Automatic annotation (TrEMBL):
Keywords: Glycosidase, Hydrolase. It comes from the Bacteria. It comes from Alkalimonas mucilaginosa. InterPro entries: Hypoxan-DNA_Glyclase (IPR026353), Uracil-DNA_glycosylase-like (IPR005122), Uracil-DNA_glycosylase-like_sf (IPR036895). Its EC number is 3.2.2.15. This is DNA-deoxyinosine glycosylase. Pfam families: UDG.
Length: 180
């Protein structure tokens, strides 16, 4: 098993949405770019939702997200994993969300790119970290090419919730919030 370290967050203090994956895959880590695998659906979805060209350079795509008050990060700072599948992740340790939330008080929505990101956040972060006030959580289908059983249109429809106002987002069931 390889010991992996995730990427730094891409954010500005005015972020209203935080998109969380679990841990970048092997291609992404090698490139030091979020969602670097050419078959990952993440960037085509973001381009469609936020009105930019998917062919933009990586720094330009990141800037497009930042301009739309979207931050990008992963739940895990470190883990062990052979290959790129979430199911192979072992020995997880989370990123510093308490510090992140202190710097990003405008957050209204934390969205999870796939079930593993949501499960790791619930297990490792929620029990010990207060969420920003009025912040909802949203589970989204994975953008990974390994999630081949979902059509593009169904996946895109689910991800469209990112562009609705936070009052319209249906929060996840059984979210435990910790008082500040």
């Amino acid at each position: 098993m390889s010991q992996l370290t995730g990427l730094a967050p891409v954010s500005r203090p005015d972020a209203r949405v935080l998109l969380l994956g679990s841990m970048p895959g092997a291609v992404s880590l090698a490139q030091q770019q979020y969602y670097g695998h050419p078959r990952n659906h993440f960037w085509p979805i973001m381009a469609e939702l936020f009105g930019f060209e998917v062919a933009l350079s990586y720094p330009e795509r990141l800037q497009a997200l930042l301009n739309n008050q979207v931050a990008l990060w992963d739940v895990l700072q470190h883990c062990e994993r052979q290959g790129s599948l979430d199911s192979a992740i072992r020995h997880e340790s989370p990123n510093d969300f308490a510090g992140f939330f202190q710097q990003h008080r405008q957050l209204q929505l934390i969205a999870f790119n796939g079930k593993k990101a949501e499960a790791s956040f619930r297990k490792l972060v929620l029990p010990t970290t207060a969420l920003p006030k009025a912040c909802s959580l949203l589970a989204l289908p994975s953008s990974s090419p390994a999630n081949a059983g979902m059509s593009r249109s169904v996946r895109l429809q689910a991800w469209r919730q990112l562009t609705t106002s936070s009052e319209q987002v249906e929060p996840l069931d059984n979210i435990s919030r910790i008082s500040e």
